[in-house]
Amino acid sequence: MELIEQELTRGIYRGIGEFHVFGQDAAATQVGRIVRLSVEQGLWLHAHVDVQALHALHAHDGRARVIWAHTGFGTPVAEVAELLERYPALMGELSYRSGIVEGDRLTAEWRELLTRHADRFLIGSDTWVNERWESYGSLMAGYRAWLAQLPKPAAEQIAFRNAERIFPRR
Ligand SMILES: [Zn+2]
Q: What span, in angstroms and rounded, lies between the C-alpha atoms of 18 and 34?
């Protein structure tokens, strides 16, 4: 907490994360302090969490603005849709997210979800190790391949317009 507060005095941050927390650990008092700090300062929480922890983050403060890292990896699409409806500020980040394509085709359920909630998804590179930077070009090519299978307005929202909206230039 001290480190976060100290870093925030630099005035350069738009969010806190990516951080990992799972299950009931996210209900801890310390996590609640971080959630409330993010709300007070208008910061995004970039959270690598399971569904239980996602609920716990919102239970600390329903105004929390969460970018869900990897959109739960493998959380069923119907459950992702319910969570987006339950938490209006929730954004889904799509790196490492499985099930979006089969072969090189966008699946029907993901096409429907990404089209219906095109304002709620972000692509990410998750360059957590140097190897991810080395494969950055192919990661982005992978996104472009399925983005091109969506209606263009939806593809543009997911590719960059949502990011521009939630992180406006300043
Ligand atoms: Zn992660």
A: 13
Give the chain's domains with CATH numbers. Answer: 2-166 (3.20.20.140)
- Of the chain, the percentage scoring pLDDT greater than 70 comes to 100
Ligand 1 mean position, distance from CA 73 (Å):
9
Rounded-to-10 torsion of CA 101, 105, 110, 115: 140
Note if the pTM is more than 0.85.
yes
Give me the chain's average pLDDT, please. 97
Neighbours of ion ligand 1 (CB under 5 A): 48, 69
User: At which residue do the structure tokens 């790196």 appear?
Assistant: 95
Q: Provide mean pLDDT across the span 85-91.
A: 98
- Calculated CA dihedral for residues 151, 100, 109, 54, nearest 10 degrees: -110
User: How many angstroms is it from 48 CA to the middle of ligand 1?
Assistant: 5
| Residue 68 CA, ligand 1 centroid: distance in Å | 9
Using an 8 Å Cβ cutoff, are 95 and 150 in contact? no
Q: How close is the Cα of 89 to the center of ligand 1, in Å?
A: 19
